[in-house]
């Protein structure tokens, strides 16, 4: 049955009337049977009648009061769909075909980090069960832990797979890789990898693990390793060289790493493997190389002519703030660089630290002078030394604790306390200041293969691996750990690295399109487009549709090349069996 409209013109005026009509066949021909005249109708009245008639014919059309329509469920849709697409670009859907929890955990890390025991419930709030065609709710709560164990068993092959896909997708630079290590602390105490060590989280009171990471110049991680928490930076490089060659087939490589891993043994080991490196020296090492003229500091003080002064000494201009000069000793190149902005910042920072130290010692003396109980010399000295080291003022302040006796008012009790007596070592202060703004890059890559300006550029790109660690800790919630079994701790790190792989790929796509938006912000915007289940109050019937896509969401999808995610074809597959 349908609503048939008829038009009639009378005295130059057009009249529209409606009638209920039904179709039927007679001798193979379609004919219409008149049911009832409805006369003239407004457009709104006609539309309502059409909806009623349609509802009787089509299963997923409902008619009722708008106030009775309710949202029954919401599922994360567009942000999950984007990350799933990137996951598939790296063929991780095939690699983890038997481990659907792997993608669920990695996507969760990017969007809404949960504990492992909560992942099963979280998947039910997303479209992941539909995308993976897997019913997570049917699993036991221990399934995810079995997945973690299997992920660790496959760690080496997974890294090979990721590196191979990075090469195929053009995400590697045949020239260089970036290497660094970090630490992450524990809440528990039972993991065999957990030890106290140098804490980059500023939590020396906690047990920790050490994590090594290698990324491509574009930030794609392909090697990671979990080590005991007391592992020292410099001891990890030689093992890495062997792994790069044997696991990834990297015979020639420019290894870029932080100055904390520079040791003579490491540099010699890299050279023996016929690999090349770029790093930087600690400032204490720079002063011993004799690369700077005696008058250097007097030449950089002048804010107006510092650049001309250094250019006259053979320095080259890198940018408006940085100049450099190359020195070659044997097969090693030292590139001495001076950054005027860093010079000013470090000068100001030193004065601030100096003032903080003075204020702290004054406060200490006031506290010690009014002590209510006797003070322990060793504990007091240790507390002061730790503070001065924190501000890198422990060599500048020459100090000692001078005993004083205090008589407590009212009781006459004698209290042993101290007074901090100090002088400032001006020579040490000047020595520190003499290296303000100075960086010395070091490499064994020949000049004809890599100019000095390129050495600086590569080292500056080292921030890619530092960014990776920052994302792992802050966005992906790498720390703190509540897992205790070694295999599961390793798997947790692997999942976080895979999550970062997805975020980095998304970030790079946005940057390539010069779209002013971070990966995290893009996901937040896309995350507002949900898959919604709607229906009437007190009814089990429902239908599903996505939230109307905003202009901003559509713009992001176009920049990423992911418009198909809101196409009718994609949605039809996703919404299959979406009515009841």
Any overview of this molecule?
The protein has 580 residues and is an alpha+beta fold. It has 4 domains: 2-58, no CATH class; 76-155 and 512-524, no CATH class; 156-282 and 444-508, Ribonuclease H-like superfamily/Ribonuclease H (Nucleotidyltransferase, domain 5), CATH 3.30.420; 301-443, no CATH class. Helix content is 41%, strand content 23%. The protein contains 22 helices and 17 strands. It has helices at residues 43-57, 78-89, 92-95, 100-111, 119-123, 128-132, 143-153, 155-168, 237-246, 264-272, 283-287, 296-300, 306-311, 340-369, 377-390, 426-433, 452-460, 463-474, 486-512, 519-526, 551-560, 568-574, and strands spanning 2-10, 13-26, 29-39, 69-76, 176-185, 208-215, 221-228, 254-257, 276-280, 316-317, 322-329, 332-339, 397-407, 414-424, 438-443, 530-536, 543-546. It has a 9-stranded mixed beta sheet, with helices on both faces. The chain has a 3-stranded antiparallel beta sheet with strand order 1-2-3. Strands 4-16-17 form a 3-stranded antiparallel beta sheet. α10 (264-272) links the parallel β8 (254-257) and β9 (276-280). α4 crosses α19 and α7 packs across α19 (486-512). It is elongated and about 115 Å long. The model has no long low-confidence stretch (mean pLDDT 87).
Helix-strand layout with pairing:
Layout (H helix, E strand, L loop, with lengths): L1 E9 L2 E14 L2 E11 L3 H15 L11 E8 L1 H12 L2 H4 L4 H12 L7 H5 L4 H5 L10 H11 L1 H14 L7 E10 L22 E8 L5 E8 L8 H10 L7 E4 L6 H9 L3 E5 L2 H5 L8 H5 L5 H6 L4 E2 L4 E8 L2 E8 H30 L7 H14 L6 E11 L6 E11 L1 H8 L4 E6 L8 H9 L2 H12 L11 H27 L6 H8 L3 E7 L6 E4 L4 H10 L7 H7 L6
Parallel strand pairs: 5-8, 8-9
Antiparallel strand pairs: 1-2, 2-3, 4-16, 5-6, 6-7, 9-15, 10-11, 11-12, 12-15, 13-14, 16-17
Helix pairs in contact: 4-19, 7-19
Protein name: Transposase IS4-like domain-containing protein
InterPro entries: IS1634_transpos, RNaseH-like_sf, Transposase_11
Pfam families: DDE_Tnp_1 (PF01609)
């Amino acid at each position: 049955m349908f609503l048939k409209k008829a038009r009639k013109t009378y005295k130059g005026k057009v009249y529209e009337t409606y009638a209920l009509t039904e179709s039927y066949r007679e001798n193979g021909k379609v004919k219409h049977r008149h049911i009832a005249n409805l006369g003239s109708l407004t457009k709104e009245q006609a539309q309502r009648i059409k909806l009623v008639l349609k509802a009787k014919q089509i299963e997923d059309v409902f008619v009722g009061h708008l106030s009775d329509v309710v949202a029954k469920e919401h599922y994360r849709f567009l942000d999950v769909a984007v990350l799933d697409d990137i996951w598939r670009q790296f063929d991780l859907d095939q690699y983890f075909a038997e481990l659907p929890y792997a993608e669920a955990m990695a996507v969760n890390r990017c969007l809404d980090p949960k504990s492992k025991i909560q992942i099963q419930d979280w998947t039910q709030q997303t479209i992941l069960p539909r995308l993976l065609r897997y019913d997570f709710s049917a699993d036991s709560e221990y399934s995810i832990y079995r997945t973690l164990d299997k992920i660790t068993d496959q760690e080496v092959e997974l890294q090979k797979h990721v590196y191979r896909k990075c090469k195929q997708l053009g995400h590697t630079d045949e020239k260089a890789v970036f290497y660094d290590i970090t630490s992450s602390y524990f809440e528990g105490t039972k993991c065999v990898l957990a030890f106290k060590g140098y804490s980059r989280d500023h939590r020396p009171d906690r047990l920790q693990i050490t994590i090594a990471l290698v990324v491509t110049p574009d930030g794609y991680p392909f090697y990671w390793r979990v080590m005991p928490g007391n592992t020292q930076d410099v001891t990890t490089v030689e093992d890495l060289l062997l792994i790069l060659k044997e696991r990834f087939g990297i015979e020639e490589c420019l290894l870029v790493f932080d100055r904390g891993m520079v040791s003579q043994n490491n540099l010699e080991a890299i050279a023996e493997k016929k690999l090349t490196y770029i790093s930087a020296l600690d400032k204490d090492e720079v002063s011993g190389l004799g690369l700077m003229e005696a008058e250097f500091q007097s030449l950089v003080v002048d804010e107006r002519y510092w650049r001309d002064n250094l250019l006259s000494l053979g320095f080259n201009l890198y940018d408006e703030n940085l100049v450099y000069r190359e020195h070659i000793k044997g097969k090693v190149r030292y590139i001495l660089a001076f950054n005027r902005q860093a010079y000013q910042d470090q000068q100001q920072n030193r004065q601030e630290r100096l003032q903080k130290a003075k204020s702290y010692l004054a406060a200490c003396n006031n506290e010690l002078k009014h002590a209510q109980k006797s003070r322990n010399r060793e504990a007091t000295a240790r507390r002061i030394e730790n503070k001065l080291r924190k501000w890198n003022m422990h060599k500048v302040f020459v100090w000692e604790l001078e005993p004083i006796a205090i008589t407590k008012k009212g009781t006459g009790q004698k209290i042993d306390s101290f007074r901090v007596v100090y002088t400032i070592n001006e020579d040490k202060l000047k020595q520190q200041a003499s290296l303000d703004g100075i960086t010395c890059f070091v490499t064994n890559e020949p000049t004809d293969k890599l100019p000095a300006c390129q050495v600086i550029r590569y080292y500056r790109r080292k921030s890619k691996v530092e960014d990776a660690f920052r994302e792992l800790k802050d966005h992906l919630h790498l720390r703190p750990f509540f897992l205790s079994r070694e295999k599961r701790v390793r798997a947790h790190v692997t999942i976080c690295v895979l999550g970062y792989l997805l975020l980095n790929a998304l970030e790079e796509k946005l940057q390539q399109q010069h779209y002013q938006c971070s990966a995290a912000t893009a996901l937040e915007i896309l995350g507002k487009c949900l898959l919604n289940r709607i229906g009437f109050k007190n009814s089990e019937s429902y239908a599903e549709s996505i939230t109307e896509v905003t202009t901003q969401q559509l713009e992001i999808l176009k920049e990423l090349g992911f418009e198909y995610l809101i196409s009718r074809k994609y949605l039809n597959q996703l919404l299959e069996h979406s009515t009841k």
